[in-house]
Amino acid sequence: MNANGVEVVSYAYDAWGKVLSVSGSLSSTVGAVNPFRYRGYYYDVETGWYYLNARYYDPNVGRFLSPDTILGANGGLQGYNLFAYCNNNPVMFADPSGMCIYGTFSDFQFICNDFSADGHCLKCGQQWSNAYIKSLFDSKGLPDYVDPILKNRYWALNSCKIQQQTAKLRAKARAATEPIQKAYAEEMSTVLCFVAGTAVKAEEGDRAIEEIKVGDRVWSYSPETGETALKQVTRTFVNETDRLVRLIVNGEEILTTPEHPFYVPHSVDERASDWGLGSGWLRAADLRAGDVLYLLDGSSAIVESVEQILLDVPVTVYNFEVEHFHSYFVSPSGLLVHNTCPDENQKIIQKWGKDYKKTGISENDAMALWELAVEYNVPGHAPGYDSYKYGYHMKIYNYHINIIS
Q1: Which chain regions cross the lipid bilayer (predicted)?
Q2: Domain boundaries, the chain
Q3: CATH of 194-339, one of 3.40.50.1980, 3.90.950.10, 3.40.50.1100, 2.170.16.10
């Protein structure tokens, strides 16, 4: 619009942001060079791409040109597609940061999916969401659609109450999921492994990780004491994954799972804040070119590149537990990495499941718990859950049998 509020340029887009047409009295001048287009994203006229602050997006293919920097941040399986835009649902979501999507009516989804003000579940669910969308298109007030739906339900709302309660209800939803998120960050790391053929610094020299057996001795290091010593392998683990990180260090390729901690002794930034392993331990997926890693001989090596890989077919990966120091060295150069205890992680998940069976669990937490159980190889059945039963409590069935039995 011009200074008088008259429209001089108009753009038409498809659902993915591709420019279909430019019209208006200034379409050939201002319209051609205007840098802010679809959803207010910055538009590069020369390439036809949008810049979403963290990375470029190509509306012609509906994909980002570089991988997401926060794996799984968008929730569900779509969150692990590192190049997908808005979980492949551009109608209902936007991604102005290039890292995390938000929904058109996310406030209402939080309320409908989790709670009502008095602790009872709102039975309207999808109907309420649809009513909200319909009210946007029809330009009618929320009360015209919301009140009839909620009448004779647990709680009747008007538009004022909606505004007053939204913040409170979202706070409740965050509080309900906080135990899982906090415990996940502080007590757990996922099954951490390397592909077959990865060299491990053992007592007799370099050995492929898949050949390491219980009782073998490998070189280990304690950042707390500065001691390097041969330590015994107490357990070995074999898993599968379809996600890997390719690191290039000293010209050597290391293929590991994204969560495996590497030791960066001088790292003090936020990347290490959620590990609970002490300062300096960074996930492979969080490493950056230029990071300095610790080597067996006490020297350092610089990370040359970091690449995340999604595989079509899962590959077998290996890990083991080391007594006392819980660390070992990999690759011909001898990079220091941490080890974890997957069985302990499984026990934590099982305990959570039993606790939640007694206290009740929301749909969101139930699915989050199941996803963790899958990730940590907790044996049992396929996922599933019943509907809400009187408020916050939920009956669960067909979850991993070792979680709820």
Answers
A1: none
A2: 10-103, 106-187, 194-339, 345-404
A3: 2.170.16.10
Residue 15, number of CB atoms within 10 A of its CB: 11
Amino acid at 220: S
Digit-by-digit pLDDT tens for the chain (405 residues) are 787 888 889 999 998 999 899 999 888 888 888 888 988 888 998 899 999 888 899 999 999 888 876 554 444 555 557 788 877 878 777 777 776 665 544 444 444 443 333 333 333 333 444 444 444 434 333 344 333 333 333 222 333 333 334 344 444 444 544 554 444 433 333 456 899 999 999 999 999 999 999 999 999 999 989 999 999 999 888 888 888 999 999 999 999 998 899 999 876 556 654 444 667 888 898 899 999 999 999 999 999 999 999 999 999 999 999 999 999 999 999 999 998 654 455 656 667 767 766 666 665 666 666 666 665 555 543 333 333 232 333 333 333 323 332
Give the integer Cα–Cα distance in Å for 231 and 219.
Answer: 6
Does the reported pTM lie above 0.70? Answer: no
CA–CA distance, 291 with 265 (Å, rounded to integer): 10
Length of the chain: 405
